[in-house]
Amino acid sequence: MKQYTFVIARAARKFIESQPKKQRDRIFTAIFKLPHEGDITPMTGRTGYYRLRVGTYRIIYTIKESILTVEVLDAGNRGDVY
Asked: What is the mean pLDDT of residues 40-50?
């Protein structure tokens, strides 16, 4: 299995860290299982972008296969992140 590097944008990290510990741990656990596990859907209208669902939270990310990097671009509540 390939080892990916994770880059989390400042806004996404700030949102995740502001959550209660239980939710924060759940979100980080789900992120670190990417790019192949979780409730993942390709985003419509944005080629190369994906959405990860963790309960009522959504994580928007992209994968850079050439350098084995998962870049988390945004995180938030379902209605706020899109």
From this structure: 94
Measured between alpha carbons, how far apart are the two ends of the chain, in Å? 31
Find the domain containing 76 and state its range: 5-81
Does the pLDDT at position 2 exceed 90? no
CATH code of residue 73: 3.30.2310.20
φ, ψ of residue 36 to 5 degrees: the values are -115, -5
Q: Model's pTM, two decimal places?
A: 0.91
- DSSP H or E segment with residue 62: strand 57-64
Number of domains in the chain: 1
Give bridge partners of residue 76 from the DSSP assignment: 58
